[in-house]
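Structure ticket #2291
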Amino acid sequence: MSARRSKEDGRKVVARNKFARSSYEIEETFEAGMALVGTEVKSLRAGSANLRDSFADVRNGEVFLENAHIAPYVFGNRSNHNPLRSRKLLLHKREIKKLIGKVTQRGFSLVPLEIYFVKNGKAKVSLALGRGKKTYDRREDIKKREMQREMDREKRFRR
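Resolution: structure written out below.
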């Protein structure tokens, strides 16, 4: 799986968490850097990452990405990285304080949306502050999507 390059902002997207948008109401997004070891960067450049069950956690005034799977580098040696290790996210202090306030008091969750490379070659993660959707909210979203598809189909048919 190779990474895809976005034309509008020059980002090279490595992994997306499609599940996050369907199960969380996204309130706000943040861009954070990641503290990675060398073999993780090489593996990300090869496009082998998965954000399916990952989340971010705030510990001791720092934010960590948990449960994100970055596959071991194929050409690495025995000192290859652990695929599911905690990775420190690099945010400004005021952003971390804002996240701590919302996560602890209002019941929000920190969910990673995608991992990508920016123009200068640094790996970034897009974090979302989201509130979990209830089952009936998900069903409503599916109904709205289906209705929109039907309307679009009818418009094409009438033309």
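Closing remark: The chain has four helices and ten strands.
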